[in-house]
Every structure is written in structure tokens, then in C-alpha cells.
Amino acid sequence: MNIAPASKEILIKLLKGNEQFVNGKYEAKNITIETLKALAHYQNPHACVLSCSDSRIVPELIFEAGIGELFVVRVAGITVGANVMESIEYAIKKLQVPLLMLLGHDNCGVMEYAQEHYPEISEHFKTILNCVYPAIECDKSALESENLLAKQHTLWVEEYILKHSDIISNAVKNNQLYIAKCHLSHETGQVHLLDSNLEYVEIEEI
Q1: Are the C-beta atoms of 191 and 110 separated by less than 8 Å?
Q2: Residue of 38, 46, 103, 101 whose CA lies nearest to 77
Q3: Separation CA 41–CA 144 (nearest Å)
Q4: What would the DSSP string read from start to end of 17-82?
Q5: Average model confidence (pLDDT) for the chain?
Q6: pLDDT tens string 162-176
Q7: pLDDT tens digits, residue range 4-44?
């Protein structure tokens, strides 16, 4: 699928913001009370980001974004339940964002927990495990590395939401939405685009 110009423009903006973050040249604007006041009665975010609740993963900082620029849905391990799905659908249908980013990351505690307990369902965190285990079942080699599992899970999340949401799948089919599968490296701070083979790709390749 060809990425729509609006989606590509936002994706490039976010990746350039990430480059600024990585290079220590953080120059984010729109982070003042004046910005918040200006947006008191409406919002017009550029993209929806589904990210992990991990305290180290802060999309606004990682992408050098200000108030009102990102509609962020945060949940442990970017696991998808009904509320998460509907939050994403709201961003797409009501706010008409042209980009949905699925942002996995290195050293995710959820992935480590899933590896330790697979294939059993523990007393706690049942919903989370039921969301991650399908990614393991797609490729058992993901058990060898939590970072590999995180990437595999990101691909699975895309497949899941396209299968279970008409709002999201129709937006993609009509080229109104692009889903960017991404992975954050803790060592470098860089966000990489993933292809269907879990390889890193450049934006020119999509």
C-alpha cells in the first residue's frame, strides 16, 4: 500500500523529532500554558500513538512533540483490550488522525513476564498474557529474546486491530490511515520502523 502524503508527512515529522531527541537537540515547542489555553475547547492531534505504560517511554519527549500534537494511548506492553481499541478508534473516527503508530520498545517487562510464564496463565495479569501469547504462537523463536518478542507482538497488534475494528481497517483500506509499526531502542533512543519480517526499514522504503 502506498502511504498517503498526509500520513507520510506526519511520520517524517515524528522521526525527525526523534532524531533531534537522540542528538540532544531538544527544541520542542507548544509546551507552555499558553498552548494549553489555546486548545481549551478543541484538539487536533497529528497522530495517535499506542505506546507502553513503561515509565521510560514518553512519546511526547521521544518525538519532540508539544501539547496537543499526539493522541497517546498508553497500556502495559501495548496490549489491546476493548477500551484501548475504542480509544484508538476515537482518534481515527472523531479526530481523523492520518497516522497510527504502534510503539514497542526494548527490555519490556511485559515481554519478560510472558516469556517466563508461557504457556501458562498466571493468577495475575491474565488479560495481558492472553494478548502477548498469540505473538509467541506465531513464532516460537520469539521466546529467545524479549526484544524479538516485543517486535513480533507489535506486528501481531496490527493484525489484531485490523481484524477486529471496522473503523481502523476501513480507514487503512481507504488510504486515510497509515499504521507505522515501530520499535524504540533504549541504548540509542532511536525509533525504528519495522517491516513484516521484523527488519528495520527507512521511511523511503514504505
Answers
A1: no
A2: 103
A3: 48
A4: HHHHHHTT-----S-SHHHHHHTTT----SEEEEE---TT--HHHHTT--TTSEEEEE-GGG---H
A5: 95
A6: 999 999 999 999 999
A7: 999 999 999 999 999 999 999 878 788 899 999 999 999 99
Q: Which residue bears the cell 517487562? A: 109
State the number of CA atoms in the 13 A half-sphere of 151 facing the CB.
22
Residue at 58: amino acid letter: V
Grid coordinates representing 69 are 500534537
Q: Looking up cell 537537540, which residue turns up? A: 25
Contact 78, 157 (CB under 8 A): yes
C-alpha grid cell, residue 32: 507552555
- DSSP secondary structure letter of residue 188: T
- What the block records as the C-alpha cell of 178 is 497509515
* H helices present in 78-125, as ranges: 82-93, 109-117
In 3D, which of 75, 87, 9, 106 has the Cα closest to residue 48? 87
Give the position of cell 496537543.
68
For 146, the grid coordinates are 524479549
All three cell numbers of 108, joined, read 519490556
